[in-house]
Design a protein that fits this description.
With 180 residues, this protein is an alpha/beta fold. Helices cover 23% and strands 23% of the residues. The model has no long low-confidence stretch (mean pLDDT 96).
Length: 180
């Protein structure tokens, strides 16, 4: 069975120093780099918001399309990425899940590539990783969340643990990178 790695939103604005920086967000990068060659297909989602997005009523302005903040973290080798998924591209679109990508149908792409096992990592555990993993389960993929390659916003203490529990209860398999 072919397997795909989906790197969720490891973008400059979500890493320390970014507009919506996650504490230790860049710590996922070495883990991702250590496993990236183990997959048949590698995908990366990116928040790609318009400057006037209503999303910014809830969140600080971040990942505005065509800005440095929206770029993939520079230490991830983009040459290894087969497909980029742009989400949150409309002014009234939050785009938490990579399955909401507007430049490609992720479900169709994964089926065309004969992917059944989808491994998810990136930022953030309690928002975009969770939304993507839940959608992957709903779409029938064997969904794995790589727990040492994710980091959480934790707006409320324990949001990360609650998100992991919700993903597990939905059918996601929680694994560490060394188990792949």
């Amino acid at each position: 069975m072919k397997k795909a790695l989906l790197i969720v939103d490891v973008q400059n604005d979500f890493c320390p120093g970014g507009a919506l920086g996650v504490k230790d967000g860049d710590s996922v990068v070495p883990v991702i780099n250590s496993i990236i060659d183990k997959f048949d297909i590698v995908l990366a989602s990116q928040d790609w918001h318009p400057a006037d997005s209503v999303h910014f009523e809830k969140w600080p302005v971040h990942c505005v399309k065509n800005t440095f903040g929206a770029e993939i973290h520079p230490d991830i080798n983009e040459e290894k990425i087969d497909q980029f998924l742009l989400k949150g591209t409309a002014d009234k679109d939050d785009g938490y899940s990579a399955f909401e990508a507007t430049n490609i149908s992720l479900v169709e792409y994964l089926h065309e590539q004969h992917i059944q096992n989808l491994f998810i990592c990136g930022l953030t555990t309690d928002y975009c990783v969770k939304a993507t993993a839940l959608d992957a389960c709903r779409e029938g993929f064997h969904t794995y969340v790589i727990t040492d390659a994710i980091a959480a916003v934790n707006m409320n203490p324990g949001d990360d643990k609650r998100a992991l529990q919700e993903m597990y209860q939905a059918g996601c398999i929680l694994v560490e990178s060394g188990e792949i």
